[in-house]
Amino acid sequence: QTDIPSVRDVVREFPVGAAITGAETVTQHGELLAKHFGSVTPGNALKWDATEPSEGNFSYAQADPLMSFAKAHGLAVRGHTLVWHNQTPAWVFTGADGQPMTATAEDKALLLERLETHIRNVAAHYGTDIGVWDVVNEVIDENQTDGLRRSSWYTVAGLDYIRTAFRVAREVAPHAKLFINDYNTNVPAKRDKLYALVAQLLSEGVPIDGVGHQMHINVQWPTVTETKAMLDKFASLNIEQQITEMDVSIYTGNGESFPAPPADRLLQQAYVYRDMFALFRQYPGEITSVTLWGLADDNTWLDTFPVTRKDAPLLFDTRLQAKPAYWGVVDPT
Ligand code: XIL
């Protein structure tokens, strides 16, 4: 559809982006990306298992084609992600003795050294081409009193892995905005634990520039009011906020499965996109970008997680045609 407005021309408060995987730049998805979006996030290509599959062997083969595409089309790039507990090879957490690392001083030193080497190489490789990094991803577990996820990172290095990651990223990429990214940040218990952590780290002088809200939501959850409470809470920290992985599942529970997206769900979804974008646009200068976790419904991570069923969470359908959700963003009347 060449006749429809570009999302980029309609939403001017912040760049709107999309995540892409693999070969999407060379298919029609690339045209869709270049027409509608101002930013792109490599969905998997910058994760540790892609960039340093074995120790000291850095590989940019997955991400570089996306980077060239972004450059050719003037798209900003969100770097996702330097430190995560998933999609990280086992060697990272294996000690010098070949055993899984534990909370010893020796293992901790080795892990932080690997972390530093990784960030130095990856962030330096891209230099100023990546203006925003998700430095750490999903570090919060609201069921822990201290709010920190018991990942291998935490178990071996405690909070120091987060401090080290931000300090090294700032040193190697001083131009880049450094983000802490997480999901369910609208849930008060989780939101407040994340807030407390960021406030503490900022008071220590750890260089955090922004909070990323993934926003993997569905057609009935969360409400705009809850989402507003989330944005207002973090606004008091005077750092940036970005919506980093938005998609709106048509399913409201794990038991549901539809052979094709029902019309009423697609309409509900359009209202969610409309209302959420209207909310985001009320924070110009504070919300500095909004990224959708995919381009079109033919390629969405929700088809494999949490269960195998066809979802339809994005603005364009499996044939890359604009959905009601697209019109919710572009023509909110
Ligand atoms: C997902 C990718 O989209 C999938 O292709 C991959 O198999 C698993 O990871 N939160 C994140 C993203 O921060 O990195 C995840 O991306 C989705 C959830």
From TrEMBL:
Domain spans labelled GH10: 1-332
The organism's place on the tree of life at top rank: Bacteria
Keywords of this entry: Carbohydrate metabolism, Glycosidase, Hydrolase, Polysaccharide degradation, Repeat, Signal
Family statement: Belongs to the glycosyl hydrolase 10 (cellulase F) family.
Name by which UniProt lists this protein: Beta-xylanase
Source organism (scientific name): Paractinoplanes bogorensis
Covered range of the whole protein: 188 to 520 of 672
